Amino acid sequence: LRYVAAVSVAHYWCAFYTREAVKELEWEKDTRSLLSKFAKGNGGMNIRLDDLDRQAIRNWLWATFPKAGTRNRYNNVFSSVINNWNRETKAQVFNPFAGLSNKQQEKEEAIGRRSFKPEEWHSYLQHVQEHDDLELRIIGLLMMFTGCRTSEAAGLQVRDVKLSGNIPHVVYRTNDIRRMDKDGLERAVPLLTPVLDAFRDYNLPTEPNKPVFRKYGSTRGFENASASLRNIVKNLMDINDPTVVPYSARHTFRDRSEVASGVPTARAEYIMGHVSEASSRIHKGYGTKTPPTELLDDLIKIFEVKDWGYYED
Asked: Which pTM was predicted?
């Protein structure tokens, strides 16, 4: 089977992979471009897969993608295309990309993310609450007060926001806008006053399956929301430390929960959507139903914490 067959598998792989439509189209386009780029440096489209030399592939990957994270990501794309073909068809083909990723080096090269220092967190909160864009304000507050990811906050549907009842809450789950990350846990999280106040100022769409956020409720919107929140950190707060980003709100939530008295780790991980054996057990009990009062009590305790870590200068 010639290498050109692997190119056709790109579309085949997308057809079987459950992604949002926009991401699927982008993935197919990028994959075809990547396969073409690889072919130019490794003998052309008509070279047979079993004629490819693994050492030559390794050398090309290192020369083309010096950073381990990028190199691993693209190598995994190549490998996934062929693995999917082998799973779905009887005609098995050689996978020369298997085993070429180096996760340890990627981990060593990766820039760590730290939580906000207390003064940074309060400054970030002030800038978020004063932002002219109410949609972005709510997304930022959700990230700060529920410990969620950007896509989880921005990708809510109207049916996921429960503002009435004894415990107003938000449900993070796979929906028509976005899928949960593979390491993300579906859960229902109570809303504290700052988030509730912002929602009360916002005119929610009426259709249950509509995006909550008209401007940011799409794959491109998630990226725009993330960029706008980064602008707050870098330009409005004048923080040039690359380890401090909007995602630092999630790290801060985790650090505060570890310090908070009487908050079980399992419930804190469930609130954040961090998959572990313990949080998964909590999920089986709570799922995405109305959260119990004890989760609201946990959140209150977490945000009563005023000092949550040591930071080197």
From this structure: 0.76
